[in-house]
Amino acid sequence: MRSWSSPCDWSGASTPLVEATLLQRLAATQAVATREASATALGLVGSKQAMAALQGLLGEESDGLRANAVWSLGRLDDAGRPAVRRALRDDAALVRDAAASALGMLEDQDAVDELLRVVRTDKVARVRRTAAWALGNLEEKRAGAGLVASLRAETDEEVRETIVWALGNIEATDAAPALADVLRRDANGDVREMAAWALGELEVASAAGALGEAAGGDAEPSVRATAAWALGQFELRQAPSGLIKAVTDRDPDVRTRRVGAGRDARSAGDHRTARGPSGRERPRRAQGAGPRARPLGREVRGVLQGTAHLR
What we know:
By secondary structure, the protein is mainly alpha-helical. Helix content is 61%, strand content 0%. It contains 19 helices and no strands. It has helices spanning 16-28, 32-44, 51-56, 63-76, 81-86, 93-106, 112-121, 125-138, 144-153, 157-169, 176-185, 189-202, 208-217, 221-231, 240-247, 252-255, 261-267, 285-288, 298-305. α1 packs antiparallel against α2 (32-44), α4 runs parallel beside α6 and α6 packs parallel to α8 (125-138). The longest helix has 14 residues, at 63-76. The chain is elongated and about 65 Å long. The relative contact order is 0.12.
């Protein structure tokens, strides 16, 4: 959820009066926008006592109301996680997307199998992408085989890119052959670039050949640059030809990511950053996280401002 800058700091703002007022507004009005805003506000003020009311909203007709309730349930307490997992089977894509996003932010390890099912079978690409992001954020290696199977069957480019990112982020070394195949064959440059990044994360020696081919011959400079960075993660004896190609590349950005570039970058901090070696934003929290429900708009601000005097 985006943060909201206002004169009122709502961190730790939960009080019995604020909670009671929000619950009263939720029950007393039929205005969908107000009810959606109240459901989101209950999550923002951290009210665990609202669990029953929020769970009751999961049967409401409004997709936005159910989605906001799912987000708040995921935010409030671990006890809300089973309801969030069940929401992955909601009829509305908006709700399923919010549930997958919430489970990723919660890092709910019990949701791995359900999230894999969503990546494999959901009919909406946006939902599959968010579920793949959630699995990558969980960093649970047992998800690797299922993600590889989904990667081979996936037709949407953005979903494939996110699955590839997830495999790199969970360091699924068994996925190296599949990622090398993506690097060699995928028609989309962004997906190939992500595959090069993921192989650099895995540091599997058998991937050096595919990375060398990409560093020296891919049509996209960003893919060549990322492959050169990935080769920098290996010992020189594992991929000398690919590194030599990177040194002599016609594109200066590729040349700057030659030998050692990856190790130098990684020594500066956590290598699982939101940006990859070519500087392009990776699908992590900024793109995969949510909620996918209503943003923190004027309706939510109005509900919160209406309770400011109760604090």
